[in-house]
Design goal:
The chain is globular, with a radius of gyration of 20 Å. It has 6 helices and 2 strands. The protein starts with a helix and ends in a 16-residue tail after the last helix. α1 crosses α2 and α3 (63-70) packs across α4 (74-86). Helix content is 69%, strand content 5%. It has a two-stranded antiparallel sheet with strand order 1-2. It has one domain: Winged helix-like DNA-binding domain superfamily/Winged helix DNA-binding domain (Arc Repressor Mutant, subunit A). By secondary structure, it is mostly helical. The longest helix is centred in the first third of the chain and has 36 residues, at 3-38.
């Protein structure tokens, strides 16, 4: 690949990554607004959305899996679930043949409120994606799966890295 083409591809990748960063920022802001609209802390609203989305997919979350999804300790997740259950936003059930397994379900009003809040955006996003042929959407889906897998692997590796002290940050690699 010649240098001009390589520079063009690098610039294209940068633009794509910038677009993903912007989308991520928009998603975070939308989540913050949803939390405020519900009168919940943003972490509580994120948990409720994770529980409702899993329920919609037919793959109920356990408290441990929710803890992983929202990056909270098990103790913090238990406190969060206690708050959400006391407010009637979620229920904990034992539906599995192994009665030790707890499944999380959202309250009926949560799904209704989420549909009310996110419905207009979902319709807009669907309309935006409707312009793309199914084979291209399949390629986007594969691309996003690969990016998410790469990010998951990076995050898993970074858990074991010890941060440098602030006084060594400007000294380059250690």
């Amino acid at each position: 690949m010649d240098e001009a083409m390589s520079d063009g591809v690098a610039a294209q990748r940068e633009r794509l990554m910038e677009g993903l960063r912007i989308y991520g920022g928009h998603y975070a802001e939308l989540s913050r607004r949803f939390a405020a609209w519900l009168g919940l802390h943003s972490t509580d609203a994120t948990a409720v959305l994770e529980i409702a989305a899993a329920e919609e997919r037919g793959t109920l979350l356990s408290p441990a899996r929710l803890s992983e999804r929202i990056s909270l300790s098990t103790g913090a997740t238990t406190a969060l679930l206690n708050r959400l259950e006391a407010a009637g936003h979620i229920t904990r059930t034992r539906e599995h043949s192994d009665r030790r397994i707890v499944s999380l379900r959202s309250g009926a009003h949560i799904q209704e409120r989420a549909d009310e809040f996110f419905g207009p955006l979902a319709r807009r996003l669907d309309a935006a994606m409707s312009h793309y042929p199914p084979d291209l959407l399949a390629r986007f889906e594969s691309f996003m799966a690969e990016l998410n897998s790469t990010m998951d692997a990076h995050l898993a590796e970074r858990i074991t890295v010890t941060p440098r002290s602030p006084d060594t940050l400007g000294d380059g690699p250690q």
